Amino acid sequence: MALVRPVLSQTEMRNSMQLGKSIQQALGTSLLLSTLVAGTSFAADTVKEKAVVATYANVAEAIYEDSLISAKALKASIDALVSNPSAGALNAARAAWVVSRAPYQQSEAYRFGNAIVDDWEGRVNAWPLDEGLIDYVDQSYGSESDANSLYTVNVIANPKLTVNGKMMDATNITPALLSDTLHEAEEVEANVATGYHAIEFLLWGQDLNGTGPGAGNRPYTDFDPKNCTGGNCDRRAAYLTAAADLLVADLEEMLANWAEGGAARKSLMADPKSAISAMLTGMGSLSYGELAGERMKLGLMLKDPEEEHDCFSDNTHNSHYFDQIGIRNVYTGRYKRLDGSVVSGPSLSDLVRAKDAGLDSEMIAKLEATVVSMAAMKSRAESIEAYDQMIGEGNVEGNAVVQAAIDDLINQTRSIERVVSLLGLKALEIEGSDSLDNPSAVFN
């Protein structure tokens, strides 16, 4: 599998920089958030677990609503690209994709500890993917894989394909075809046919630059039947449209789960003590095993851009950064929406402060330290070199920036564990990673 980074035009770079400024303005700086949290915290002796869980659910609802709003904007930009292909339309769709990732990544702390989210998440954010399932690939990608018989089936080029030994009709590329037939076909997790990363691959294309500069650079003519490159431009446009439709529908489903009366909200509110455990499980598992381990340390150890998260768009630095913002949101009970409004309420921070103000201060300080190290990584990616270059062999400075963020993620997890103990909760199952817990296994 070859992964991808985008080569941005000067206009696209300016748009991305403006986007970054807008997102930063919406979120506020770390220090400003700390001040606001301290200034609006709820009296410790009046905070009840049920109120804290209600805030957690309200924040989730707002995050998924923002994710849906930005996914609909992405869908509109894709419709514009398909109806009138141009370089400008492709760049606009790419920019909309980047925007859509910021709120969604803040939802990932809800995945761990919430079965409803975890069971659904693979439909929208599964990675890495064997992109040969979807479209044409470079010769260097290879033609087959012992682990995946659909490695280069290329549904865009083939209206007939064999799945599980049966001939399938893929003449019409629809959301149902993607979700019911292709996604995780033959029980192979790398057969990712839906979600953000399938859309990302279609918008950017393969990255053949390894840990060197450069990224995916799919031409807009791949979507232009009148001036077609790559072949099958009408089917490629149909696939991209179907994937965007499906993403919107999936986010609508998850938003409903967190609205009043929704299954996720009702389940948590019925057992606040277990819900508090779920909140801390989400914080700890994302912080440690998933983000510090599988998404960061593993790639750094292997010096392998194949382990980059937003691999086709070179947006990995933003995904990691907003994951950390999401972890902080859960603890502080505060989320700043895309429109600048704030959702907040009684928080885990308030519960901890009632029992041990020192530990609460420690937890907030560690969360902020990780935001700062993530921001440093983000800044480097936007001004010096992409994330996949940072993890490259011999890049001492880049490696150190990534390692600093990993160290802070691990450090904050230790405080999360102390919070669990303080609140008298059962030991949580915080996900681990061989890259952190058994490094020698990574090379075996």
Primary descriptors:
444 residues, mainly alpha, two-stranded antiparallel ribbon, two-stranded antiparallel sheet, 4 strands, 60% helix, disordered N terminus
Structure, briefly:
The chain has 444 residues and is mainly alpha-helical. It is built from 17 helices and 4 strands. Strands 1-2 form a two-stranded antiparallel sheet. It has a two-stranded antiparallel ribbon with strand order 3-4.
Note down, in words, how this protein is organized.
Helices cover 60% and strands 3% of the residues. The model is unreliable at 1-39 (pLDDT under 50). The longest helix is centred in the N-terminal third of the chain and has 35 residues, at 49-83. With 444 residues, it is mainly alpha-helical. It has 17 helices and 4 strands. The radius of gyration is 22 Å and the shape is globular. It has helices at residues 10-27, 30-40, 49-83, 87-105, 115-125, 175-182, 196-204, 233-258, 263-270, 272-302, 316-332, 348-355, 357-383, 387-390, 396-422, 434-437, 439-442, and strands at residues 160-163, 166-169, 334-336, 342-344. Helix 3 (49-83) runs antiparallel to helix 8, helix 4 runs parallel beside helix 11 (316-332) and helix 10 (272-302) runs antiparallel to helix 11 (316-332). A two-stranded antiparallel ribbon has the order 1-2.
